[in-house]
Amino acid sequence: MAAALLLLPTLVLGTLISHSSPQNLTWASQFAEQVRAGILYPRWMPDSFDGLGSPAFYFYPPLPFWIDAAVSVVTANALSTPYRLAVTTTVILFLSGLRSWRSSRPSPARPWPRT
C-alpha cells in the first residue's frame, strides 16, 4: 500500500522524465518483447541505436527487466511501456519493503553446535 502511495504520481503520469528514462523505456520495451517471443534471457537489443542494436544485457543486470517482462505478460501487454514501468517500479518497491520487513523481524533462536 505504501509503495503505491509513494509512487502515485508515476502511476498516474507514467514513467517520469529522468537522465536514464529514454534507455529504460527502450530497453524495457525490447526486453519484454523478446521474453514474450520466447527468448528468456535477451542479451541483444536489436532496435537500439537506430536499428544497429546494442549488447546492453551483457553488461547491465536484467532482474528489473525480467520483472517488467513478467508484468507485461500478466497484463497481456495492455499497458504502454511508461505505465508498465511505473507498475514494475511499484512491484519492486513493494517486494523490497516486504523483504526489509522480513529481515527486521527477530529470527527464532537456533541452537548452535558447540565445538
Topology (SSEs and partners):
Layout lengths: L1 H5 L1 H6 L7 H16 L11 H4 L4 H4 L3 H12 L6 H24 L11
Helix pairs in contact: 3-6, 6-7
Structural account:
The protein is mainly alpha-helical and 115 residues long. Helix 3 crosses helix 6 and helix 6 packs across helix 7. The termini are far apart. The mean pLDDT is 88. The longest helix has 24 residues.
β-strand number: 0
Write down the overall geometry.
globular
The portion of residues forming beta strands comes to under 5%
What is the average of the pLDDT values? 88
Q: Please compute the radius of gyration using only Cα atoms.
A: 18 Å
Are there runs of 5+ residues with pLDDT below 50, and where? none
Structural class: mainly alpha
Distance between the termini: 47 Å
Number of helices: 7
Task: Describe this protein with a few key phrases.
115 residues; globular; mainly alpha
